């Protein structure tokens, strides 16, 4: 396994790559105020099991800069800009592989709102407090009762 820093439009993250060819790529979309390092053990486990993993800090948090330097960036921008930017980078870096995601809290909201990208194969939500996404049915979106999304259909 090898780790390398990733910078996508001011968003700083870490790519955890397997020692052999990956079978999928998974992006961890973090919770608010949760540094990317919190997910390092999970990402390392994935890489040891042939899944490339990307962890990152939203702009204005952790390694992606101070809140003071990113005063105009908030949760709306994290959801609408940061999530798709990192997802797009992962899709370009690993073309042809299944695109997976885990959304923790705010990251899960971004995924249920459809910002995980059109190529998203599957995702899981963790502590995302999603009460209802019934309105998404008009966009051909489905979720399993266990709160694990199966992606676009």
General description of the model:
The structure is a single chain. By secondary structure, the protein is of the alpha/beta class. It contains 3 helices and 8 strands, in the order βββαβαβαβββ. The protein has helices at residues 40-48, 75-93, 106-112, and strands at 2-8, 11-17, 24-29, 51-56, 99-104, 120-126, 141-143, 148-152. An 8-stranded mixed beta sheet has the order 1-2-4-3-5-6-8-7. A hairpin with a 4-residue loop joins β7 (141-143) and β8 (148-152). α2 (75-93) packs across α3 (106-112). It is globular. The chain starts with a strand and ends with a strand.
Features:
single chain, 153 residues, alpha/beta, eight-stranded mixed sheet
Fold blueprint:
Blueprint: E1 2-8, E2 11-17, E3 24-29, H1 40-48, E4 51-56, H2 75-93, E5 99-104, H3 106-112, E6 120-126, E7 141-143, E8 148-152
Parallel strand pairs: 3-4, 3-5, 5-6
Antiparallel strand pairs: 1-2, 2-4, 6-8, 7-8
Write a concise synopsis of the structure shown.
The chain is 23% helix and 31% strand. With 153 residues, the chain is α/β, with parallel strands linked by helices.
Number of strands: 8
Q: What is the spatial order of strands in the main beta sheet?
A: 1-2-4-3-5-6-8-7
Stretches with pLDDT under 50, minimum 5 residues: 140-153
- Label the structural class: alpha/beta
- The secondary-structure element order is EEEHEHEHEEE
Distance between the termini: 33 Å
Q: Globular, elongated, flat, extended or rod-shaped: what is the shape?
A: globular
Main beta sheet strand tally, sense and closure: 8 strands, mixed
Mean pLDDT: 87
Number of helices: 3
Radius of gyration: 15 Å
Instruction: State the helicity in percent bands.
Output: 10-25%
How much of the polypeptide forms β-strand, as a percent range? 25-35%
